[in-house]
Each structure stands twice: as structure tokens, then as C-alpha cells.
Amino acid sequence: MTERLSESWRPRSVREIVGQPEAVSILEPWIANPDRPPMAWCFVGEPSTGKTTAAMCVAECLNDGAYPAPDIRTGLDMKVEELPMLHQAQLVCGDFTCGSKRMHKTHSHILLIDEFERLSPHSQNWIKSNWEPLPPRAVILATSNSLDAISDACVQRFSVIEFDSGPAFEKAALDRCVQIWTTEITKRFGVEAPTFAELRRLGDSRDKFSLRTCLNKIEQKLSILTHNAKPPAQRRQEADEHAERIGL
Ligand SMILES: Nc1ncnc2c1ncn2[C@@H]1O[C@H](COP(=O)(O)OP(=O)(O)O)[C@@H](O)[C@H]1O
Ligand SMILES: [Mg+2]
Fold first, then answer.
1. Per-residue pLDDT at 243 exceeds 90
2. In the structure, how many helices (H) and strands (E) does the chain have?
3. What is the CATH number of the domain that holds 43?
4. I want to staple 165 with a disulfide (CB 3.0 to 4.6 A). Which of 5, 36, 46, 68 is the partner?
5. Is residue 83 within 8 Å of residue 123, measured between CB atoms?
6. Nearest ligand to residue 163 Cα
7. Mean pLDDT confidence for 194-207
8. CA pair distance 149, 135, nearest whole angstrom
9. Residues in contact with 214: Cβ distance below 8 Å, sequence separation at least 6, in sequence order
10. In the predicted model, what is the mean pLDDT of residues 220-244?
11. Among 121, 138, 163, where does a domain finish?
């Protein structure tokens, strides 16, 4: 299966993140500083504004890509509220060793907690009490759609970076979609990119523009074009195989 566009086009470094100049202007100098202080960041904003992407980029930048982002997410996927997950957090949070043999001693010790707000207040506070004080070279990277569901104690301890979802972000995101369409579709199939207004409609999710939704729609268009471009015999064979799979 081909990698989804939202994954294959996911920025790999902080400077590739579009439409978030404030976040980038805070993170870049901090990453570049060899004496950077340990930090507990929390990236907050609407879905699809690049929070998880930014956390993965920061993790990769800090460790020269030696600690690939997918590992970080798999190891520490704490999107559930159940206490058993805390067991894993304890391993990581308690001494800030990440259990990776590839971890180099000059690298940062990173705890990435995606969608922190989904942890129960008890879990949040447990984590906070275990990260105080942050050891040297330790970094907490948390993301959240909102600060409302995060305990006050954690909010106060986090350095919060807000991710913009306003018109400036939307414009940058639409530009990005045009760039992706042009590369993936126009160059291969000659279909010109839609206008901003059309892309805005494609990405509409509950009256808001969602970059993820728009990328999924572009993905669907790409898969239809790819399917139609196949020779008829191959299409028939694939249709037959599909029918067999679903028992028709
Ligand atoms: N600011 C951004 N710059 C570039 N790509 C982005 C940005 N925000 C989102 N994306 C794209 O949308 C996808 C979803 O973004 P993600 O980081 O998961 O958003 P969030 O965590 O804020 O919900 C990413 O895989 C990436 O391809
Ligand atoms: Mg996310």
C-alpha cells in the first residue's frame, strides 16, 4: 500500500512546518542552542494545525534523526486514559531513559505525549510529579487540542505554544495543498490544481478548514486517477479479485 499523502508530505524538520511562524520562531533558536534548558513544551491548537508533526520534528531535530519519530509515538502512545499506560510512562518518565539502544549519550531524553488532554487528571498529575525537576537534556513534548482538559498544575508548568488556525495558517495550508496537488497529480496526470475556494470546500470539516481532510480528498482523487490510468485488462482483473475477496 502506498503511504498516505498526509504522512509522505509530513514535514521532517521544524523549518518545513507551514503557517506557524510563531511556533517556529520559538522552537528553532531553542533547538539550535547547544546549552538549551530542559523544557516541558505543550503545543496547543485546533486539529490539523501541525502539533503532532511539530513534536515529531523537534524530537528528530534534537537527536539528529537518530531516534526516528515513529518509534517515539509507538513507544509512548498514551492516547488512552487507562492506568496501565502509566506503567509505560513510569519507565520513561521516572529516569528519562527511553530504552532505545540507539540513544546516544549526547542526545536529548524525550518524552512525547500526544493528545495529553486525553489522559485523566490523575494521570496528568502523576506524570507532572514525576518530571519535577526536569533532568538536564530532558524534554517533554506534549500536544493538545485545548488547554481546558489539562489540569491547572500541568498548564502552569508547561511552556505553551499556540498553533494558529486562523486565516494566515489557512492560506499557508492551501498553498501547501496546491504544491502537493501539483507534484502528485498535475505532473503525472495533467489535472490542474483546484482554486483556493475549491480546496477550501474539499477540506471543510464542520465549517472549518482541515488540512488533514483536504489531504485525504487529494489522496482519493489521486487513487481514482491512478486506477483509471491502468490498462482495462488490469482493471478488470483487480475488479474480479476484489469481488472474490468480498464473496461476490
Ligand atoms: N503546519 C503544518 N505544516 C505542514 N504540514 C502540516 C501542518 N499541519 C498539518 N500538516 C499536515 O497535516 C497532517 C496532520 O497534521 P498533525 O501534525 O497530525 O496535526 P495535529 O496534531 O495538529 O492534529 C500532517 O501529517 C501534515 O502532513
Ligand atoms: Mg495530533
1. yes
2. 12, 6
3. 3.40.50.300
4. 46
5. yes
6. 1
7. 95
8. 26
9. 173, 174, 177, 199, 202, 203
10. 92
11. 163
What is the edge-to-edge ordering of all strands in the sheet holding 109-113? 109-113, 138-144, 39-45, 159-163
- Give yes or no for residue 116 CB within 6 A of ligand 1: no
List the grid coordinates of 129.
510529579
Beta carbons within 8 Å of 19's beta carbon, 6+ residues apart: 49, 50, 164, 168, 169, 170, 171, 172, 173, 176
CA atoms within 13 A on the CB side of 166: 6
Domain that holds residue 216: 167-245
CB 96 near ligand 1, within 6 Å: no
| Residues 111-125 pLDDT 10s | 777 788 877 777 777
Cell numbers for 183? 507534484
49 alpha carbon – ligand 1 mean position (Å): 5
**Residue 104 scores a pLDDT above 90:** no
Query: Beta 109-113 vs 39-45: how paired, if at all?
Result: unpaired
Task: Show Cβ contacts of residue 63 under 8 Å, excluding neighbours closer than 6 positions.
Answer: 103, 104, 107, 108, 110
Residue 199: CB atoms within 10 Å: 22
Is the same domain home to 10 and 40?
A: yes
pLDDT confidence of 108, banded at 50, 70, 90? low
Among 134, 163, 192, the domain-final residue is 163
6 Cβ below 6 A of ligand 1: yes
| Contact of 51 with 11, CB cutoff 8 Å | no
pTM (two decimals):
0.83
For residues 222 and 171, membership in a common domain is answered with yes
Domain count along the chain: 2
Q: Please work out whether the CB of residue 49 comes within 6 Å of at least one atom of ligand 1.
A: yes
